[in-house]
Amino acid sequence: GHSVGDGDHGKRDGHWGRGGTMGCGCDPLTPVPQTRAARVRVGKGDKPVTYEQAHPPHYIGHRKGWLSLHTGNLCGEAGAAERAVEDSFLRRFLFGTFPGLLQDEVVLKRRGNLLVVCALLGRALPPHKIYFLVGYTETLLSHFYKCPMRLELQTVPSRVVYKYL
């Protein structure tokens, strides 16, 4: 060993690795850009936001719920990555099947073998076309995932505004 006051700060002791890095290839003295996710900036009070957009991500579980409910994230459960890929596919499929009609985020619930998809739709299409798209979606996704699938929709006249920021 060597003393603490020699200006090396323990880099040769082995726990810092080579060249002053922490063994992961990152330099602890290099500034890291700060990133923030899913926050809507407060403006002049003229920007309409939904309930999901109004609350920051750290309020998940306190003021708002998760948009994907399943047991894959529990301790010891396998398949969390597969559920994330399936969720991404389902959301893209629904945005493509109902173009411009989805008014808020889609909520996915897995209850045993049943897949329940909840969404808010705008009233831009006549009811018979929406019924066709619902049947098409339920049939196609039930065959694709080989499990029963239910689509729970609520129609709204316009975008649901929670508050203005």
Please provide a written account of the structure.
- This protein is α/β, with parallel strands linked by helices and 165 residues long.
- It has a domain at 65-156: 2-Layer Sandwich (Alpha-Beta Plaits), CATH 3.30.70.
- The chain contains three helices and six strands, in the order E-H-E-H-E-E-H-E-E.
- It has helices spanning 51-54, 80-97, 127-145; strands at residues 48-49, 68-69, 107-111, 114-122, 149-156, 163-164.
- Helix 2 links the parallel strand 2 and strand 3.
- The chain is flat, with a radius of gyration of 24 Å.
- The N and C termini lie far apart (58 Å).
- Residues 10-21 have low confidence and may be disordered.
- One of its GO terms (cellular component) is ribosome.
Keywords:
transit peptide, 4-stranded mixed β-sheet, RT24 protein, single chain, alpha/beta, Alpha-Beta Plaits
